[in-house]
Amino acid sequence: MTDKLIIFDTTLRDGEQSPGASMTKDEKLRIARLLERLKVDVIEAGFAASSNGDFECIRSIAGAVKDSTICSLSRANDRDIARSAEALAGANSARIHVFLATSPLHMEKKLRMTPDQVFEQAVSSIRFARNLCGDIEFSAEDGYRSDPDFLCRVFEAVIKEGATTINVPDTVGYAIPELYGDFIKNLRERIPNSDKAIWSVHCHNDLGMAVANSLAGVKIGGARQVECTINGLGERAGNCSLEEVVMAIKTRKDYFGLDVNIDTQHIVAASRMVSQTTGFVVQPNKAVVGANAFAHASGIHQDGVLKARDTYEIMRAEDVGWAANKIVLGKLSGRNAFKQRLQELGVQMESEGEINAAFTRFKELADRKSDIFDEDILALVSDEHAGAQKDSFGFVSLSQHSETGERPHAKVVFTAEGKEVQGESDGNGPVDASLKAIESHVNSGAEMVLYSVNAISGSTESQGEVTVRLQSNGRVVNGVGADPDIVVASAKAYLSALNKLQSKSERVAAQG
Ligand code: KIV
Ligand code: ZN
């Protein structure tokens, strides 16, 4: 048994299935490049057959990212598998990930298939996939709620057909660590050819145990691949969090005895990039990447840490990239320093023109804000990429008046399909008035289901980052906007959400 644990990141596939977390091709490419710098072993870049947009994302990631294996998800049918193979054609190292549900509930109610039919489909799909790619993963969806006898039969057969990784998902987050570990151990012991495949865990977080279950699958069950996402992003309560599982394996090497490839110094940058791209804010007390993860408020703790850091700290903040959270640039910084910082943050821009445009925005921001933090740069670059998407709506300017005892009033100028337009409205507060001003012209009728403001770097001098979640005709989208003026940030976030609502991309959900 190898002592290396494979880290399979599915932020761009399972993570993107969170309502409102959908990402553009450029955003996915940027995250994929950072995952490569993080030295993730396998990047699940999407689900090729779910939409043309997803197909193109996988294709461009496969062309650009060379150090990680690039994976595409497929249902267990020839069309999906062929589409994955096509999208992955340019990859240095490619994997096709085939999934099929095996629990009695899913087979009967969702697939309307008998166990024998599921067995046949699993075997024939792996036979087909194996002819197109040497690296094939098979996932038994809702595996943990499946009958172990049936799973043994299916897994033994798909390994015989050439599946190289066997994944046992806890699709609905129902498992308990010890039971999940034993479940995998038992399968591996009973299946005669189990040593011909790498065993993998994929846990959802519905009961808050995705990381604990994954670690038990590794320690007790002998799994050597963990499927996870940055910040634990994912459907419902999310997936196993990459940063937590990696730091647990590293910090408790005495217990796990395993190595991971991950270059942990990029963890915080990856967390911020995913949060800023999707608008899913990281809670301050989140392990490893939360703003308070290394903060000590009580006097006794502060005193202890100053005397000997390991009195209250089990990891070093700089090992996960917190040391990089320093003032990096200001008004006098030049283009080269800006470009280098972008590279350090894992942001690769396609052309000199794109860098120039981002640098101009950086200078504009530096005129209004003395200290520019990494988060500011990432927010600015997100705006830059968003602008490059040829969006329907773009922010131009805003003026608003609010005074105690008066109803606030706002005027917003923005572009709609290339033409400059203006909306005007009153509202309960300046933000409400500004968003109503935009809506007075757009008439989207979308329902706002979430509005949140976050100070990007912790003080009132920092930029405000606003997330607006809109819902319309069954679609949920998140828009993100950043600016030192939170009313402007709100208007930008609202326009960004409207742009996402306008984009036509419809996807087939993996668990659908
Ligand atoms: O949760 C799940 O079962 C999945 C599969 C598609 C692997 O995401
Ligand atoms: Zn999943």
Quick summary:
By secondary structure, the protein is of the alpha/beta class.
Provide a descriptive summary of the structure in words:
Helix content is 40%, strand content 19%. The chain is an alpha/beta fold. The protein has four domains: 276 residues, Alpha-Beta Barrel (TIM Barrel); 29 residues, no CATH class; 53 residues, no CATH class; 115 residues, Alpha-isopropylmalate synthase LeuA, regulatory domain (Double Stranded RNA Binding Domain), CATH 3.30.160.270. The strands form three sheets. It has an eight-stranded parallel beta barrel, surrounded by nine helices. Helix 11 crosses helix 15 and helix 14 packs across helix 15. The two termini are 35 Å apart. The site of 3-methyl-2-oxobutanoic acid (KIV) has 9 residues, from strand 5.
Draw up the topology in text.
Elements: E1 6-9, H1 25-37, E2 42-46, H2 52-64, E3 69-75, H3 78-87, E4 94-101, H4 104-111, H5 115-130, E5 136-141, H6 148-161, E6 165-170, H7 177-190, E7 198-203, H8 210-219, E8 225-228, H9 242-251, H10 253-256, H11 267-278, H12 299-307, H13 335-344, H14 352-368, H15 374-387, E9 393-401, E10 409-416, E11 419-426, H16 430-442, E12 447-455, E13 464-472, E14 475-483, H17 486-502
Parallel strand pairs: 1-2, 1-8, 2-3, 3-4, 4-5, 5-6, 6-7, 7-8
Antiparallel strand pairs: 9-10, 10-11, 12-13, 13-14
Helix pairs in contact: 1-2, 1-11, 2-3, 5-6, 7-8, 8-9, 11-15, 14-15, 16-17
The structure holds 3-methyl-2-oxobutanoic acid and zinc ion.
3-methyl-2-oxobutanoic acid is lined by residues 14, 99, 139, 141, 169, 171, 202, 204, 510.
